[in-house]
Amino acid sequence: MEKRWKRLPGSHTEPAGMERQVLRKLPFVTLAGTAACVAVSLLARLVWWGDHSVETARALQMVDIWVIAAVLLHWAVVATVAIYCFIVFVMKGPAYVADAYELPDENAPQ
């Protein structure tokens, strides 16, 4: 049996919208957002440079935990936007018939 995807009669393709523009910008947004989050941790280390107290170590650990959480949140948001754009991209394409099943022309089951 040959499996072939057939276009649904009368279906058409919609023109591309903002989803392609957003998908093109996502790598830059990912890198810029990650760099901005990591910059906070680097700035904290620069501010407390030379201070070797226990309180400073705890504060730097807390800053690092918040930065890691912010980076993971940023990546999750970017991934969600990418999935959304991909779904819109696929939905704007033509419709296909996957499995056509011809029903028998009888009123009663056999």
Helix content: 55-70%
Backbone shape = elongated
- Uncertain segments are none
Separation, N- and C-terminal Cα atoms: 25 Å
How confident is the prediction overall: mean pLDDT? 86
- Lateral strand order in the biggest sheet: 1-2
C-alpha-based Rg, rounded: 26 Å
Number of strands: 2
| Largest sheet, strands/sense/barrel | 2 strands, antiparallel
Structural class: mainly alpha
Reading the helices and strands in chain order gives EHHE
Concise description?
The chain is mainly alpha-helical and 110 residues long.
Note down, in words, how this protein is organized.
This protein has 110 residues and is mainly α. It has a domain at 27-97. Helix content is 62%, strand content 4%. It is built from two helices and two strands; from the N terminus they run βααβ. The chain has a two-stranded antiparallel sheet. The mean pLDDT is 86.
Give the topology, please.
Blueprint lengths: L5 E2 L10 H30 L6 H38 L4 E2 L13
Antiparallel strand pairs: 1-2
Helix pairs in contact: 1-2
Question: How would you describe this structure in keywords?
Answer:
110 residues, two-stranded antiparallel ribbon, mainly alpha
